[in-house]
Amino acid sequence: MSRPGVGAVLPPDLLRPRYGEATLADVLPGAAAALGVRIERNTLPADPLGLTAALEGARRVAVLLIDGLGADLLRAHADLAPTLAALSSPVGDLSAPCPSTTPVSLATLGTGLPPGSHGILGFVTRIPGDEDRTLNHVQWGDDPDPDVWQARRTVFELTADAGIPATAVGPYAYAGSGLTRAVYRGATYTGAVSHGDLVALMLRSLAATPHALVYGYLPELDLTGHVRGVDSASWRAQLILMDRVVEQLVDGLPDDAGLLVTADHGMLDVPPETRLDLDDDDSGLDDGVRLLTGEPRARYVHAEPGAAADVLDRWRAVLGERAWVASREEAVASGVFGDVDGALGERIGDVVALARGTWAFTATRRDPGPSRLTAYHGSLTATELAIPLLLARGRALA
Fold first, then answer.
1. pLDDT tens sequence across 164-179
2. Which domains does the chain have, with CATH numbers?
């Protein structure tokens, strides 16, 4: 049997996000603080990034999140993104949350809280109370109710309550989705039909009122990386386009506005030799397993009743150095999710497997779409966690 607590210590190549110090959760509370709104978030400080000072004098703040723009990737391709490369970096790199995946990150950004507090704890998670029912957070409508599944008040709600209007600008197709409702609640969601439209809508929203918090989201770099790989001509071409979007936003900033650019996670290519197909494995990893959730680099394993300890031992033995494998209790105790509120922990698997190196644990029959991708994220390597925080100031703030 497994020794209690053995999985609570991360291996040296995986990192625990520094919630309340320098993570994605700290961006919007800091932006709100710069606008004069203090966001209370349990024991975490209101503005650990010092954005009040960095944005001193700002009456309007825009935050642009470029999905998949890892800090390591940006540094490696700075020549393709001269506008991004020229922006100031007031606090250095931030950390994505755990798992380092888009729904978790967007909820972390929107609430200003770690995943254990807001409850969006994976790309796909089990819905407690129904052992075989899962929620894919990017294919989410109104079941379960987004206001219940993610019940914490967002930074957008809190700033709007303080009299500062909040706007979220993102793809038109995402308007009304469960994830949009859960993480941008309190902001007026404005659907953009193109990159140019997003620029125009963000700048219009910034200029519309004397004070404003405006958020924009661009998903295409991440999608290109997943499908073509981050070491591809397609990804590099897309990065050039993202840089052009930022250039237009910087050029159009009102004099009393600041722009923060960040991301939700990094990415890495996964070659064929570091893929383990869980649907084509004869080492017994499926024994005692009722449900597999998560994604290829951040797997949650839900065991049959009474089988959790055996499943944990088996996954540890088979995966070995390819992953950090922990029980739910050990993973929670490690702090990777931040403090986990009550029953929200039931959304985490009985066993957690976070990939090391470039390993991915695909499932070509149960999870065919994600298993065909070229690049991935989700785990806690430095490349997946490191995200930029870049700053541009309007002329009156320079």
1. 999 999 999 999 999 9
2. 24-269+382-393 (3.40.720.10), 270-376 (3.30.1360.180)
